[in-house]
What does this fold into?
Amino acid sequence: MQTVGQKRCRTDFDKFVIVSNFERRQWLKGDDDDWDFYWASVTTIKRIFSPENTVRLEPHQIINHFPNHYELTRKDLMVKNMKRYMKQQKKDVLPDPVADFVPVTYILPQDYSLFVEEFRKAPVPWIMKPIAKAQGRGIFLINKLSQVKKWASTDIPAAMRPQTENYVVSRYIEDPLLIGGKKFDLRIYVVVLNYKPLQVYMSQLGFARFCNIKYSSEVAEMDNQFVHLTNVAIQKHGDEYNSRHGNKWPLTDLRLYLEATRGHAATSKLFDNIKSVIVGSLKACQNVMINDRHCFELYGYDIIIDQDLKPWLIEVNASPSLSATTQSDRLLKCKVIHDTFQLVTPPDWDLAAVITPGQTGQVSRCLPKAVGSMQLLYDETTELEQGRARRDALLSTESVKRGRRKTMIDSVAQRPVSAYA
Amino acid sequence: MQAQDGELLQAVTQALQQDLRYEQIRQQAKAYAIDSEDPISQLETSIFQHLLTSGGATFISNTAYAATEQLQQSYQAVPCIGPASVEALDSCGKDRHLHLRGLPADSLQKAKQAWQKLLVERLYYLQAKLDLPLVQPRKCKAGVQQDTPGGSTEPASVRIADREQPYLAHVPLLQDSHLFGVADWYSLVTTLLNSHWDTISSAATQTLEAVNKANPTTRQELGSDWMSWGWLQGFFQGLRAQHRQVGLDDMLHAWFQQSSIQTGEACLEAGVIPRCRSALQTGAPPALRPRLWAAALALHLPQASVETRFQGLCSQVEECHLLTDLLIEQDLETVANSEHFFLFEESLRAVLLAVSRDSELGASCCHKPFPTLLARTEAGNTRGPYPPSGLLPCRGLVEYAAPLCYLFADQASCAVLFCSMYARFWCRLHTIDDTAGKHATLISLCVLFLHLLEESEGEVAQHLRGLGCPPLHLALPWIMTAFAGHLAVGEVLLLWDRILGFDSLLPLPLLAVAVVAFRRQVLLSAESKEQVMSIMEDLSQLKTVPLIQGILFGR
It folds into this structure.
């Protein structure tokens, strides 16, 4: 028997940042299906939401992934959704067309011939990434077609080839922004509460992950992972790795540096563009995502900035790393997780508050502008409400106009039949 | 006063005549006068108007201001002010400075001698330990053209920035020995103060009483109620809550962020030095900070001549290694491990090594570096200071330069800015004398900190002393590093904005008192020295502006 107010929680990751946040809220340990909050791994999610699983989630249960999150977090599906979104944007001819924010990418082996055509246009390097792997494993750079011979069209149809062979190949960003001569990428934490309507928060706490070694676009250094790949899992093994700072630079420091060296206008534009990239990527998947009411998600966005201060979306991680490499890293991740919990579990979270299955609209609550380090990035409800208000206003004027133009015949035909006639 | 004004005028005229732009402006004004159709009686006013509109007046007033304020415009091809004028200015300047009362001159002298002895001993000890000469020119193989690194295409600054240079391989042998650091300063200051604290504090109280009783005219002569809250509040008018501050209001109001940028841009357009300085009193928007600091210090950055000179100094570093280079390298360890500055390690290495070869630095400091060791050739002739800048590297020297890397991407500008700031501000932290008031040096700053702490947080001070952790022990590292490495980088820069804006190091002891006052509850409940040290270890979440405003005006 649960006592009201004492929540039960489960986690598939025995990490300090999660467990400490459970403990500070005095949540009890749940088990099996007896839980209110579950910080699950993607494997568990697959199991819970698979058609074979007959057990449904209770209305009060909250879980940390959407059933088909891979539409955004798997490299090939993300690219597919983005391409479709960009095409749609161009067709709609909107007043502010969204600039492309994903490097040109092809899926191998399906798009091999398209890739070859593009490859031959310019002598730039491309980067090969296995679709289903993480932490930088299996990634390498290519500058010759012979290096991708394996994926060339053969007689075996693509569907019959083993899954592990699938790669994405993207145009490599050869001119990344360098600081101290080193390449970096940004890790930004984003919480999605709902896809429909889209409600997104972005954390002010992020960091830049640097390579140990100075960047070089020399051909000889193309195979040097320590120059090109910023994943911590890779850089950790370099000779130059210093665990005191872990090659992580706070986002606030980056902003301070860019303001002084590049000016206010350019820096504001960069950060606004980063926000547009995040919102754009989520809008692209809005219609394919199963918007389960029990779900929220904390994404780890990987973004690279080039020399012209343009952000490029590299990938979105469904399970951003919760291990801490330094003291401040641990503090940062604890705070991000804490703010996430605050966002998804309001203080008056009560077992009695039921989200009925048939309810289509969001339980009306005004989303706060900021919760801890999390700032409201995009709330579609305001847009929808504005749209509704506009439509209502339009309709009311239309009906007034129609009223004036009514002819005798129309009014006779439309006169309501009296119930007492 | 009259004689001093005359000397000042002479110095300013000399400075103007040495600058090429002055000649250009003169020629332009002359041409304007010839072409103008005004009657002769109105010529003077019309030329004056012309100078105002053409920007000539700004240039002249800036040069005059720089000369008066002894802002050495370093890295000019021609020195702005001749050495004779510098001395003249020095002497009239020093007479106007306040002095700390109650500190006898001979104890200062003794402290200086002891200090010099300590440093020289340590240097020779290090030399013996490492078994390296103090000066080591790059060896040339007899008869064979040295395979010069000059054959490579990289500039000298890149080569000297490399950690893997062969000479620096000796660093691990040093095993964390430094010439001097905060601990040494602490023992020096406490020895001086402990023996004379009664006289100092009674002199301060006497002065305050006398000042309170005195009428306004004699108050000026007594001069020194500078340690009172009233004087400080008057001095730091610019920090009053009525004036919106960058570092506080820009985070609360987006409109202020925009307007502060516009005000800053307008200031930079006009280019008048005193205006830029007073703009810094309320803080600089991060985007305009580099230019505002350069303007306030009468520097022109970035500039091609600056880059050439910097590369020249870097080549000098390559030509001849000094033992002090190893000390600098050891100091860089703190930077290499810091999460805020690790990216700038190489830039800082190049900057510090180049600056140590700059002979103009020692000459331009408002308080000459002490002690200045002279290098002699084998023949016995004196060659110059060792190292050429006159600045013996101490532990923590790099921390004055590290935040500057957030302002300029190029190393030459960082180096110039560092030299300028050291010459004007940080050298006062390495001086053993009794200057007080606005231009207070280390000892007066410590006295101010202790005095204010006693007045506002006497309970905490007593508790700390009871735990065996005197307040100065806590605060001296903060004051000596100007809070670099203790506060977040953005906050350090906001603090340094105020130092530049008020042209004084007084914000440092003020902020130290404010930090202790802010954490008073936690400190009062601490039960041991270790606990106190661990409480005060992490200041990274503190905000400079509200703290200083609180301690000054929140009474």
Summary: The interface with chain A takes residues 261, 285-290, 336-340, 342-347, 406-409, 488-490, 493 of chain B (CB under 8 Å). The beta strands of chain B are 98-99, 135-137, 320-322, 373-376, 382-386, 435-436. The longest helix of chain B spans residues 182-213.
